[in-house]
Request: fold
Amino acid sequence: MREYLLVLFVSAAVTYLLTGPVRKFAILAGAMPPVRARDVHREPTPRLGGIAMFGGLCAGLLVASQLTHLGRLFIQSADVKALLSGAGIMWILGVLDDKWGVDALVKLGGQMIAAGVMVWQGITVISIPVPGVGSVAVTPTQGMIISVTLVVVMVNAVNFIDGLDGLAAGMVCIAAGAFFLYSYRLWYGYGINDAAPAVLFSAILIGMCLGFLPHNLHPARIFMGDSGSMMLGLMLAVAAISITGRVDPDLVTAQTGSQTATVHALVPTYIPLLLPLTVIALPLADLLLAVVRRTWAGKSPFAADKQHLHHRLLEVGHSHSRAVLIMYFWAALIAFGTVAFSVTNTGRTVVLALAGLCLVGLVVLLMPRFRPHAPRAVQAFVPPRYRKEPHGAAARPAAAAQGAPDAAQPEPALSELSADDKELLGRLGTGATAVGSHSEPRG
Reply:
């Protein structure tokens, strides 16, 4: 675990430190497209944040190759080289799209090429574990089709939700966290070595997202662009493929002692696409709804619009930050709920807990203008919008609008100034003599 945590922190640190210089480079390179009608932000914001994230990926893999236990993966498995080659192709395609724009069909073709290169190097589904039957082997052609489809779906699902500040990075971080816990349990708890690459890829993915989020939270200073969102989707798909179809249920049965316990322990992998689809359930639902909506309207499935789930949250009255947190909540609920159901033996307890959390989430979702107030004991440690205003605070704006005498009195902060500061302020004046009165007509 210590080696995985080290790789995670290195990826996060390198991504965080590179994002600042990358932002300046994006501004100089002109990777700041004008604000479109479907955009939520109001000012042109630089893209190319995927460059910093790719640096975090390379740094994490470099450190992992020098560690004692993780270094063996680079010798025993070709998954690391396949990931780096596929991520490199996807990253280059995204950089070109962020700077000059790439046609949707060309982008789809590039995604399939990146997936095909990884399949050619060994990242492919070999077998499908079916309940009551066991592992069903698939032909190389079938494995290639399943793997390429999964990569393309993941990449576009993550790309579709990259519409609010911090949304894509946060949701991928949550999905990678759930996948890390599940794959680490298979690797460490059951001794399945085929799960080790998925643990490494998930740890690096968490670090990349955590390092980029401080720069991308609302108001965002930089966007990851397609160079980042497509790479994140590809890495999540690779982590899923590297573990799905390679875990032999018989290895778990030998330790659990019963087929029933094995079925429960491997719930997310008995259908190969279940766990990957649950950890990105919201992005996938948004992708499917967008395809159906645009096709029904006679438009291309890749035509952009402003009807995504996060856009609808803003339309019903949620603030930018609140909409992002709601999406975080549902993503974590679905992803970690699936993992919890595969860990605990009391599935009924997990289902009831998830139902209760869903009820809480629905209440929050239907009350967009509800603003909770923190207790007085912790108000000094929370943002100002969660602090309870004094009883007379609401009456001050009305008194000021009516020209009450109290409104003209100086602010209490003025009494805290020193004598020298007051003298300097007196010499500077308020600036009214320089700009003139607002009521005077302009010639």
Residues 268-273, 394-416, 430-443 have pLDDT under 50 and may be disordered. The beta strands are 127-130, 134-137.
